[in-house]
Amino acid sequence: MKTIAVFFGGRSVEHEVSVITGMQVIENLDKTKYDAVPVYVTKDGRFLGGESLKNFKTFKSSDFSGTYDVYFKADINDRKLYHKVEEKGGLFSKGGEREAVYADVDMVFTALHGTFGEDGSIQGYFDTLNIPYIGCSTLSAAVGMDKKIMKDVFRSHGIPVMNGEAFYRREWQEDKDRVRAAIEKIGYPVFVKPVNLGSSIGISKVKDASELDEAMDLACQYDRKILVEEAAENPREINCAVLGYAGDVITSALEEPLGWKDLLSFEDKYVSGNKKTGGSKEGNARNCPADVEDSLKKEIEELAKKAFTAIDACGTARIDFLVTESGTVVNEINTLPGSMGFYLWEPLGISFGELLDRVIEYGEVRAGERGENMYSYESNLFSKTGYGSKL
């Protein structure tokens, strides 16, 4: 049986969404194959362990009395999670702390949404410690998170995206007139988005120049880089998930969110109609499978595969499309969708548990490939130079 450490929570505005995804992953992992070990990443970045973290009531009540700090050691040959255990002193012995093993980890399942979890940060941490994990690599996660770099990559692969430009918070603070003039050239209406956030947080639709300052100030609260894009009028949003790795990929059923206008808010995505976690699918109404003509379905499926492969994604990701009067464009790729996007695979006969199996298998393949790389090179450099030399 493999030990899967499920990491969830995190230093992100999507913290609560991540907790729900983590709970769902733990519940749906095949218990005949995996021992699921919860690791809750607090809002201030601590790693907590404990059996009570498998119970959603712990988070609803914020009662973490049965939990404790856990940690990895800086040893690439040791994949164990440890914690400290208090020992009482006896008649002839002193009390104190001893180190105990919380879990001997075979694979980390990252169920962390947003910053420090979906952006390559935690992936780089696990790479440094030589700990296998599911999903995208450090680089592909980072590219998939940064909406500007992501779309630059998509453009280079001939994948259609909306026209836009990125601005830094410092630019906005120091020269608002120049930024306003540049946005005027894009043409209103526009969307103003923090580059590295998801779940529609910090995003505004700006209809004219009178609304711009408020939207920019809001976005600047969440990120140092802001993407401003032209806004399509009355688009259809169609989403498609992809599963696989290194070109060996399949697409899910398509979905179409319903009952929204201009922008799906955080509340639309996660709150509306969503009163429990066990089988929640992200809250808003949707058609799944979406009612689309065959030609559009085929176009979206091919673009989804192309986008997934363009950033060298692994496991599963959801690609969100906008269907406009002038054509179909990729809005973004979500490399760790809420609830792992399990409901997009059910129409194809792939259960939540089977989806998790496949995601873990692809993570093992990617980790195996990484293990084939050489990370040292024998040289005689020290004998031929000193530390004061120019290299």
TrEMBL record:
One of its GO terms (molecular function) is D-alanine-D-alanine ligase activity. Its EC number is 6.3.2.4. Mg(2+) 1 binds at residues 320, 332. The active site is at residues 14, 199, 339. It is an enzyme of class 6 (ligase). Belongs to the D-alanine--D-alanine ligase family. Pathway: Glycan biosynthesis; Cell wall biogenesis; peptidoglycan biosynthesis. This is D-alanine--D-alanine ligase. Residues 151-361 form the ATP-grasp domain. Binds 2 magnesium or manganese ions per subunit. HAMAP family: Dala_Dala_lig (MF_00047). It comes from Aedoeadaptatus nemausensis. The keyword S-adenosyl-L-methionine does not apply. Mg(2+) 2 binds at residues 332, 334.
